[in-house]
Amino acid sequence: MRALIGDLLALAGAVSGAVYFLVGRFIRVRASLATYTVPVYSVSAITTLIVGLMMHTKFWPYPPYTWFYILMIVLGPMLLGHTLLNYSLRYSRAITVTTSTLGEPIGASLLALAIFHQVPPQTLTIIGIAVTLFGIYMVVSEEAHGVA
Fold this sequence. Notes:
Elements: H1 2-28, H2 33-54, H3 64-88, H4 94-100, H5 104-116, H6 122-144
């Protein structure tokens, strides 16, 4: 039963992400990046805070190194990464932008290798990376060549 709940949550997340990018593409063609991202990020932050409070999540006290990592997550993947995706929605199809996010686990794996010396399992990982990169290449090159 727990697996089914997890699967349903994953499906809900995927549908939510698809809707987010489709709506974002529609809005970003007409609105500036700041006009779009400030309200979206504000609503996201407030929603996260409310859900955290409802779930009695411990927000403090944390040691300084934890706040450093939280800040790095906010500045890197959240603000920089999501803002670049939202910037791209003005110039690229939503399917191209969302497909590019499939490279995120590959980048994370490379960072884990470089920073923490964590080596993923070899054969299947390499096959998965190759298939994923080829898929990303196909979608991006299709848009670059005007095939839609």
